[in-house]
């Protein structure tokens, strides 16, 4: 709570804080403020004894001295009210009435009050000087000016504070020395004398301090204090007796005594607290009568007090006017208090329709936060995000196209590897054929005479003619015979001797078989395999016997069919004539050089040798018959005849010999099948069969046979099979079954021939196995449609959003899942789960458990292949079933029903709630508040305000006097309603605070229900009216008590007693008017007691005071003011009803 002078220490205070402070101060006025509800008088500076100006007097001192007060600048005052001034002291703006009361409390203490006030001013000035960095004198002037302006602006508050300060300051003196102030046990005259003396001393001392020793003021204060001090004990004695009679201890007012019978002091205290509480409610409060408060705190036991209030209210006169005015303002007060109370709960929502939607959204969020809702949310999250058709289609199409591409790549890779091995298979298959060859015929002998030397048979013959291009082997791969002849020939032993190879001469290289040649087993087997003329063994070695094969190939080459290294047969080229001649001349020149050298070495002149002899010697050497020149020379010379020998001419003969053509496979079965189908084929089938037969022949003619031989290589066979497959596919597409049949026969035959090669069989088996994996991606299968693409652009042809539609059904799903990648499988499972969940979800996003179970049964075959997805969906179904319990609760009903705010209110606040439902209500509202705090508070306000409006509506144009009580009964009329409401309020943010305020409001409104209704208690009413007419009521006693209280207050207050004297004079001036209303004074007094809060503590206190005591005199002063207000009301006429 802020201190009394805190506003002086604030350099800058928010403007918004000013209004609440003023409002609070005005709503809690002082006890004596009603005495000063008149325009303040001006004050002027007073000359001090020291010659300087001193502070102008305010409050009671100003009233006594009659000095005028200087008004505050209205512009500064208006600026302060608008919050434009942050430092009121510096700006010269007065403080509020709270500051005025505080200043009056300090200044009103007798004698020492001004000194205490001066010390406080100096302390505040010192703090401000430190804070603002200014000088102390400047700040002291500001603080003193602030206090002066505050006192001037609020004279009523200042006087009330000074009076209270006087009483509070004198109380310790009275308690310490009661006899000195006339409060002892002495006789009345003695106590009056003592009280007069003490009052005069105290009044004079206080006036002297406040006037800086001014004699006139000091004498005036002493006189007034002495006079009022003398009157105090006498008036106090009379008041004490009157109070006891009024409070049932006396015997003067039987009606009040009967009405308060059985009411304890504790009940009065509780009633006082309830009335104070009702007046302090936000919105201006609600005024309660004493009888209403007593009935509220006692549970309706103060029925006689209610009857008394009813009689007073219905009997006319001033008492009836007071009561009726009191009641007339109640509907408006209840309306204001209700509005203010509802604002404390939440600001009003101006869109009730939208509030219904907001409440439902908050309820749905609350349901989602329950354990069952969290379980469902977790199950939904585990199911994965929503997957649309296009999202799933894009992923599935891309992934499955990738799978197909990988399978095709794998198949191609394996096929390339396998068929490469098949193409390199050995040529182990031979096909017999016949070839035309030439062999030497019978020679033609012609007898003749020679003019030159003649030679016998067996003598080496002369040089042969130079070989022609057809007879020689030209550039390119070296034939087998030339290769052997160039490298020393084959030794003439074993099977070689049975052949004619020693006569097989290779021009420029010698005979293929010769004496001194190299052995087949020891040399030529490994050399020829390494050179590529023969295939190595299966293990890559060269251990097998090649003798027969070697001799056969050499004999074939001798007949004109050369053999070349494997794989280079087709690269052999025919030699040119120039090359043959060059090689021959080179060999001949070398032979001549060797012969000449050897002849010279043995003493023979080469020029002496006959050309014929030389010719033969060179012929023997060139042919390899006698590699050694001297040996050849000796053989030629030894073979000379003495007589001429006949001329012998050799001949050649052509004949057909069998031959074997080797290759990798035998296409004969396929050719036979083509021939068989061709014999009966008709129409375009015959052309296709003929084309197939041509595909089984080589593209070029064989150099030996001069015709296109059947294909025997694996590569050509594979190509031919591919062409056959294409023709069959085309026929299938055209629907030509005859063509398909006639082409399938040779295709099977060709396939069977190719598979005789182990490498081809392995390659075909692997290709078929890999093709089986690709089979789901071909044709019109689901996967085939999904991955189909344009062969030219590589663009996928199936729209991605239609892809999931091709995977409907268990078979399609099974085939897809068998080939799917993890990503594709996840997309398919996500789409399947999304389809099932969305099919069971309504437009608000709520899953229908029945539809979910039905959808899962319909997709059971597909879900059986996806156990994880099935498990997740089953978890969602189980969690959704568990949510049914929550949906049946108030929170669930708000979340699932139509978004209508009234429906939400009916779910949370039913008019007839079931027993023990408060915990459910607390849970529901707590869930709403956790999600949307403001919406939850607005919902509660909507409920309370709607009931309030219904309960307080006018009846036939007349405001309902019992609307507040009806509202309280409607919202917590029974115990369960109360528990439900409290549970709902406590569940709100700051709920305990809101509940406290609401409970105070409802308790007040419930108390208004005890207002007595006009009944027909004729006898009781007549008795009460009789007592009132006799005047035996407490009105006169109350007036005397008020006067006594004013006198006693002046006696102990010194200068403040002047105000009491003024009041006393006013009371005496109205005595004649009060006497005119004698008949109704008791009713008015009762009305005041029943409607004025200040009567209760005085009644409780006066009843406890001893007769004629000092305390009774002080309390009598208070009652004097209470009575004065009643008199003023009577003179001035009816006042406006409080709103």
Automatic annotation (TrEMBL):
Lineage: Bacteria, Pseudomonadati, Pseudomonadota, Alphaproteobacteria, Hyphomicrobiales
Sequence ranges of Low complexity compositional bias: 12-28
Protein name according to UniProt: Uncharacterized protein
Region (Disordered): 1-55, 444-467
């Amino acid at each position: 709570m802020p201190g009394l002078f805190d506003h002086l220490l604030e350099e800058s205070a928010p403007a918004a804080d000013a209004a609440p402070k003023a409002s609070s101060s005005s709503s809690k006025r002082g006890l004596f403020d009603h005495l000063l509800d008149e325009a303040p008088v001006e004050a002027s500076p007073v000359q001090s004894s020291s010659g300087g100006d001193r502070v102008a007097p305010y409050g009671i001192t100003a009233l006594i001295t009659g000095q005028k007060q200087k008004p505050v600048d209205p512009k500064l005052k208006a600026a302060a009210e608008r919050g434009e001034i942050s430092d009121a002291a510096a700006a010269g703006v007065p403080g509020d009435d709270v500051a005025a009361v505080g200043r009056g409390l300090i200044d009103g203490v007798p004698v020492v009050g001004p000194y205490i006030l001066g010390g406080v001013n100096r302390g505040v000035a010192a703090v401000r000087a430190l804070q603002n960095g200014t000088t102390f004198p400047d700040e002291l002037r500001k603080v003193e000016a602030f206090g002066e302006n505050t006192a001037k602006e609020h004279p009523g508050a200042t006087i009330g504070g000074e009076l209270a300060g006087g009483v509070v300051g004198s109380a310790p003196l009275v308690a310490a020395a009661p006899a000195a102030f006339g409060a002892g046990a002495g006789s009345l005259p003695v106590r009056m004398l003592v009280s007069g003396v003490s009052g005069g001393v105290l009044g004079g001392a206080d006036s002297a301090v406040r006037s800086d020793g001014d004699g006139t003021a000091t004498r005036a204060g002493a006189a007034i204090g002495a006079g009022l001090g003398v009157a105090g004990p006498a008036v106090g004695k009379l008041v004490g007796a009157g109070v006891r009679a009024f409070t049932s201890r006396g015997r003067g007012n039987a009606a009040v005594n009967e009405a308060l019978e059985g009411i304890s002091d504790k009940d009065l205290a509780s009633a006082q607290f309830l009335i104070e509480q009702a007046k302090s409610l936000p919105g201006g409060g609600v005024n309660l009568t004493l009888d209403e408060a007593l009935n509220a705190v006692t549970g309706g036991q103060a029925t006689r007090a209610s009857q008394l209030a009813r009689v007073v209210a219905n009997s006319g006169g001033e008492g009836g006017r007071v009561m009726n005015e009191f009641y007339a303002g109640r509907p408006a007060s209840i309306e204001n208090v209700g509005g203010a109370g509802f604002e404390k709960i939440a600001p009003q929502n101006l869109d009730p329709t939208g509030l219904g939607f907001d409440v439902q959204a908050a309820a749905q969020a609350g349901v989602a936060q329950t354990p069952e809702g969290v379980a469902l949310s977790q199950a939904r999250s585990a199911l994965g995000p929503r997957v649309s058709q296009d999202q799933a289609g894009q992923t599935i199409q891309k992934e499955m196209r990738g799978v197909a591409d990988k399978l095709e790549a794998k198949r191609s890779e394996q096929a390339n590897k396998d068929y490469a091995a098949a193409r390199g298979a050995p040529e182990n298959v031979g096909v017999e054929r016949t070839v035309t060859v030439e062999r030497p015929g019978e020679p033609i002998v012609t007898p003749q005479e020679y003019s030159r030397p003649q030679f016998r048979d067996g003598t080496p013959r002369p040089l042969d003619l130079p070989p022609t291009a057809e007879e020689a082997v030209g550039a390119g791969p070296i034939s087998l015979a030339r290769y052997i002849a160039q490298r020393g020939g084959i030794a003439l032993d074993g099977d070689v001797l049975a052949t004619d190879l020693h006569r097989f001469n290779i021009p420029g290289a010698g005979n293929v078989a010769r004496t001194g040649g190299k052995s087949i087993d020891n040399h030529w087997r490994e050399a020829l395999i390494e050179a590529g003329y023969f295939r190595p063994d299966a293990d890559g070695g060269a251990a097998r016997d090649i003798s027969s094969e070697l001799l056969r190939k050499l004999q074939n080459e001798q007949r004109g069919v050369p053999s070349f290294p494997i794989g280079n047969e087709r690269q052999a080229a025919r030699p040119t004539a120039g090359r043959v001649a060059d090689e021959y001349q080179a060999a001949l020149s070398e032979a001549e050089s060797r012969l000449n050298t050897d002849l010279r070495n043995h003493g023979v002149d080469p020029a002496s040798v006959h050309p014929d002899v030389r010719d033969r010697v060179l012929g023997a050497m060139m042919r390899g018959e006698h590699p050694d020149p001297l040996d050849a020379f000796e053989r030629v010379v030894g073979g000379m005849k003495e007589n001429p020998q006949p001329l012998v001419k050799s001949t050649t003969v052509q004949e057909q010999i069998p031959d074997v053509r080797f290759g990798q496979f035998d296409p004969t079965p396929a050719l036979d099948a083509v021939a068989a189908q061709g014999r009966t084929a008709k129409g375009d089938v015959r052309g296709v069969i003929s084309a197939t037969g041509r595909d089984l022949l080589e593209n070029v003619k064989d150099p030996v046979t001069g015709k296109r031989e059947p294909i025997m290589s694996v590569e050509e066979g594979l190509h031919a099979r591919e062409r056959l497959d294409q023709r069959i596919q085309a026929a299938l597409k055209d629907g030509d079954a005859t063509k398909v049949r006639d082409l399938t026969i040779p295709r099977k035959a060709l396939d069977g021939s190719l598979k005789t090669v182990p490498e081809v069989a392995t390659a075909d088996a692997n290709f078929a196995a890999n093709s089986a994996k690709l089979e789901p991606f071909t044709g019109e299968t689901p996967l085939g449609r999904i991955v189909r693409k344009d062969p030219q652009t590589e663009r996928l042809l199936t729209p991605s959003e239609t892809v999931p539609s091709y995977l409907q059904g268990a078979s399609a799903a099974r085939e897809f899942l068998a080939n799917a990648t993890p990503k594709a499988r996840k997309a398919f499972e996500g789409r399947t789960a999304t389809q099932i969940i969305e099919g069971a979800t309504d437009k608000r996003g709520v899953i229908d458990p029945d539809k979910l179970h039905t959808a899962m049964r319909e997709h059971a075959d597909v879900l059986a292949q996806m156990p994880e997805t099935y498990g997740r969906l089953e978890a969602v179904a189980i969690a959704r079933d568990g949510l049914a319990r929550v949906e049946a609760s108030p929170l669930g009903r708000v979340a699932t029903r139509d978004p209508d705010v009234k429906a939400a209110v009916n779910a949370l606040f039913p008019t007839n709630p079931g027993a023990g439902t408060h915990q459910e209500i607390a849970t529901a509202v707590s869930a709403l508040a956790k999600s949307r705090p403001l919406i939850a508070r607005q919902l509660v306000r909507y409920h309370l305000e709607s009931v309030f409006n219904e309960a307080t509506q006018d009846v036939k144009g007349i405001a309902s006097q019992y609307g507040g009580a009806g509202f309280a009964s409607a919202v917590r009329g029974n115990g369960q309603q109360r528990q439900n409401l409290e549970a709902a309020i406590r569940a709100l943010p700051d709920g305990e605070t809101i509940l406290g305020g609401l409970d105070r409001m409802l308790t007040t409104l419930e108390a208004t229900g005890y207002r007595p209704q006009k009944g027909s208690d004729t006898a009781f009413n007549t008795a009460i009216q009789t007592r009132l007419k006799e005047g035996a009521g407490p009105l006169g006693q109350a007036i005397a008590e008020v006067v006594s209280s004013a006198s006693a207050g002046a006696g102990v207050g010194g200068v403040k007693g002047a105000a009491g004297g003024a009041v006393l004079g006013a009371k005496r001036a109205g005595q004649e008017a009060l006497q005119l209303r004698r008949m109704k004074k008791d009713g008015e007094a009762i009305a005041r007691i029943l409607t004025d809060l200040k009567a209760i503590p005085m009644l409780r206190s006066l009843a406890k005071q001893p007769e004629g005591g000092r305390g009774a005199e002080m309390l009598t002063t208070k009652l004097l003011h209470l009575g004065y207000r009643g008199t003023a009301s009577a003179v001035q006429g009816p006042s406006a009803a409080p709103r």
